[in-house]
C-alpha cells in the first residue's frame, strides 16, 4: 500500500487538489462541500496522471539517482499494476468531477491530463522547451476549481492564479534538476538550461523567483488576498524564498544540496500562497 501511495507522488497531487480548491474559493468566496469534493477528485486525477507518468518514464527513472528508488525502477511494483492503478484513478477522478462539478471542469481536467502525459512527458526527450507545456498544465489546475465555482475564464482572479502557477513551474523544475547535477543528461533528457553557463542559470532562476513573488504581491489588485494578515504571510514567504536562494548562491559551496533547499523553499512558498488564497475565500463571506 505504501509503495502504491508513493507511485501517485502524494505531495504533488495534494498541491494540485489544493490549487483547484483555491480556484473554487476565489470564484465563490467560500469553501464548502462541492468545492472540497472538486478538490478531492482533482487530487485523485492528478495522482493517476502522476502514476501514468512514472509508467511512461520507468526506464528514465532507473538511470537517475534521484528517481531510481521509485517503485517501478526499483522493481517493488510491476508496471502493469501501476498502469491499472493509474487508469482507475484517472477514470475515477474525471467521473467524480463530472458528477460533483459538471462536464466543463472535467473537460479542463482532461485537457490538463492530455497536456501532461501526452505532450509534456514525451517532449522532455526532445526539447529544452518542454517545461513550457508543464507550466501550462500547472496553470490549468485552478481553472478546474474556478469553473466548478461557476466563474468565467476571463475573471481577473483566475488569471492571477494562472499566471502565478505558470511562473512558479519554471524555477520549481530548474531547481529540481540542479539538485541532481547530471541526472537529466544521464537519462537522455534535454535539460532546459542546456547551453547556459552557471551564472546565467543562477540569474535566470533569480528572475523567475522574483517574478513569482511579485505576482503574489499584486494579488490584492486582482481580488485575491484581501485580508492584510494573509497578504503579509505571503509577502514574508516570498521574501524568505528569494533571500534564501540568494544565500545559496553566496555560499562558498553551491552544490546540489543547496539547490535542493532552494527547491523546497519554492514549494513551501507555493503551498503557503495557495493555502492563503483558500483561507481568504473561506472567510470572505
Give a structural overview:
The structure is a single chain. The chain is mainly α. The chain contains 12 helices and no strands. α2 crosses α7.
In short:
The chain has one domain (2-282): Farnesyl Diphosphate Synthase (Orthogonal Bundle). It has twelve helices and no strands. It has helices at 2-7, 10-28, 33-56, 58-62, 79-100, 103-123, 130-148, 156-178, 183-186, 198-217, 228-250, 256-282.
Structural class: mainly alpha
Helical stretch tally: 12
Number of domains: 1
Number of strands: 0
User: In whole angstroms, how far apart are the ends?
Assistant: 40 Å
The major beta sheet can be summarized as:
none
CATH class: Mainly Alpha
Order of helices and strands: HHHHHHHHHHHH
Low-confidence runs: none
What would you say the CATH architecture is?
Orthogonal Bundle
Mean pLDDT across all amino acids = 90
Relative helix content: over 70%
Shape descriptor = globular
Percentage of residues in strands: under 5%
| Integer-rounded radius of gyration | 19 Å
CATH topology: Farnesyl Diphosphate Synthase
Amino acid at each position: 500500500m505504501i509503495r502504491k501511495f508513493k507511485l501517485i507522488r502524494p505531495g504533488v497531487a495534494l498541491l494540485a487538489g489544493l490549487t483547484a480548491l483555491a480556484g473554487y474559493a476565489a470564484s465563490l468566496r467560500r469553501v464548502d462541500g462541492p468545492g472540497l469534493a472538486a478538490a478531492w477528485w482533482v487530487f485523485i486525477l492528478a495522482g493517476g496522471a502522476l502514476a501514468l507518468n512514472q509508467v511512461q518514464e520507468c526506464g528514465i527513472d532507473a538511470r537517475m539517482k534521484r528517481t531510481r528508488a521509485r517503485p517501478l525502477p526499483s522493481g517493488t511494483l510491476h508496471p502493469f499494476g501501476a498502469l491499472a492503478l493509474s487508469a482507475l484513478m484517472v477514470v475515477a477522478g474525471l467521473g467524480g468531477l463530472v458528477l460533483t462539478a459538471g462536464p466543463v471542469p472535467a473537460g479542463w481536467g482532461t485537457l490538463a491530463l492530455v497536456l501532461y502525459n501526452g505532450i509534456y512527458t514525451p517532449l522532455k526527450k526532445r526539447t529544452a522547451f518542454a517545461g513550457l507545456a508543464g507550466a501550462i498544465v500547472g496553470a490549468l489546475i485552478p481553472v478546474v476549481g474556478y469553473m466548478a465555482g461557476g466563474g468565467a475564464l476571463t475573471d481577473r482572479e483566475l488569471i492571477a492564479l494562472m499566471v502565478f502557477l505558470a511562473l512558479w513551474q519554471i524555477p520549481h523544475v530548474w531547481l529540481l534538476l540542479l539538485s541532481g547535477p547530471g541526472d537529466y543528461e544521464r537519462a537522455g533528457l534535454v535539460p532546459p538550461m542546456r547551453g547556459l553557463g552557471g551564472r546565467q542559470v543562477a540569474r535566470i532562476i533569480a528572475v523567475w523567483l522574483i517574478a513569482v513573488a511579485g505576482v503574489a504581491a499584486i494579488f490584492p489588485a486582482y481580488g485575491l488576498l484581501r485580508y492584510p494578515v494573509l497578504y503579509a504571510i505571503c509577502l514574508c514567504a516570498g521574501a524568505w524564498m528569494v533571500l534564501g536562494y540568494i544565500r545559496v548562491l553566496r555560499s562558498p559551496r553551491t552544490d546540489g544540496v543547496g539547490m535542493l533547499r532552494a527547491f523546497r523553499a519554492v514549494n513551501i512558498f507555493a503551498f503557503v500562497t495557495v493555502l492563503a488564497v483558500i483561507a481568504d475565500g473561506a472567510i470572505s463571506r
